[in-house]
């Protein structure tokens, strides 16, 4: 996807899509999967309309449920996959996602966000964008919840509070962020409840598109998310 030769501004774009795949997402998961499958081509199209281009595009999927309910299937994920070379691997993973489990209403969304922040982001190219997009119709268990942290397979060294997680997101270069502060963006498609509303209000470079349980991701909302990312480049 190298567009340097035609004079366009070119960017290395890493995107992590965090997708709630609990049973409550059943009515809307197919729409989210459709959006995920078309995400890269729609972003490239919008970028081209803005005379910008993607020299390297990598996507990663983290599908999540609930560690407190069933730790064995709480997280399913890919590594970063490069497009278009690994598009088939990406599509196979997305198509295999099934809405099952979840237990109570809150899910393990904050653990998933922590894992996304800790992704191996591109650091070597001049123009970069690091983007996390999280889709859920539920609130999240608080970090440090013993019902989750005590189970076998819970990720090591996950922050134990929202404040610690914010330190990993990082407000400035002096903090402990694993992401490039000038490159990062967080897009939440999540209910207007804690912790998502607090994150949307207090975290820098964060956009929030409120969702409701049972409501799908409409096309105009996906277009707005795509445009938000493209306009931030």
Could you provide a short overview of the structure?
By secondary structure, the chain is of the alpha/beta class.
Map the helices and strands:
Elements: E1 9-20, H1 26-49, E2 52-64, E3 75-77, E4 81-83, H2 87-95, H3 109-117, E5 128-135, H4 146-149, H5 162-169, E6 184-190, H6 196-202, E7 206-210, H7 219-232
Parallel strand pairs: 1-2, 1-5, 5-6, 6-7
Antiparallel strand pairs: 2-3, 2-4
Helix pairs in contact: 1-7
Oligomer type: single chain
Number of strands: 7
CATH class: Alpha Beta
**Helix/strand/pairing category:** alpha/beta
* CATH topology tier name: Rossmann fold
The general outline is globular
Descriptive account of the structure:
By secondary structure, the chain is of the alpha/beta class. 32% of the residues lie in helices and 22% in strands. The protein contains seven helices and seven strands; from the N terminus they run βαβββααβααβαβα. The chain has helices spanning 26-49, 87-95, 109-117, 146-149, 162-169, 196-202, 219-232; strands at residues 9-20, 52-64, 75-77, 81-83, 128-135, 184-190, 206-210. α1 (26-49) links the parallel β1 (9-20) and β2 (52-64). It is globular, with a radius of gyration of 17 Å. The model is unreliable at 1-6 (pLDDT under 50).
Structural features:
single chain; alpha/beta; Rossmann fold; seven-stranded mixed sheet; 7 helices; 32% helix; globular
């Amino acid at each position: 996807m190298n567009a340097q030769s035609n004079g366009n501004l070119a960017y290395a774009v890493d995107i992590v899509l965090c997708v709630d795949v609990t049973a409550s997402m059943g009515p809307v998961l197919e729409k989210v999967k459709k959006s995920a499958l078309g995400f890269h081509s729609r972003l490239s199209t919008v970028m081209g309309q803005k005379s910008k281009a993607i020299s390297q595009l990598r996507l990663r999927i983290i599908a999540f449920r609930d560690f407190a309910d069933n730790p064995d299937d709480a997280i399913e994920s890919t590594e970063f996959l490069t497009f278009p070379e690994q598009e088939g691997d990406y599509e196979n993973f997305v198509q295999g996602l099934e809405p099952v489990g979840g237990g109570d209403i809150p899910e393990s969304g904050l653990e998933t966000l922590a894992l996304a922040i800790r992704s191996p982001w591109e650091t070597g190219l001049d123009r970069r964008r690091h983007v996390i997009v999280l889709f859920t119709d539920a609130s999240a268990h608080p970090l440090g919840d013993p019902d989750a942290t005590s189970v076998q397979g819970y990720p090591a060294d996950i922050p134990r509070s929202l404040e610690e997680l914010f330190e990993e997101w990082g407000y400035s270069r002096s903090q402990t962020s694993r992401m490039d502060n000038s490159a990062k963006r967080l897009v939440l498609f999540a209910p207007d409840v804690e912790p998502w509303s607090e994150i949307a209000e207090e975290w820098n470079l964060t956009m929030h598109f409120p969702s409701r349980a049972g409501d799908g991701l409409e096309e105009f909302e996906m277009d707005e998310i795509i445009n938000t990312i493209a306009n931030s480049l």
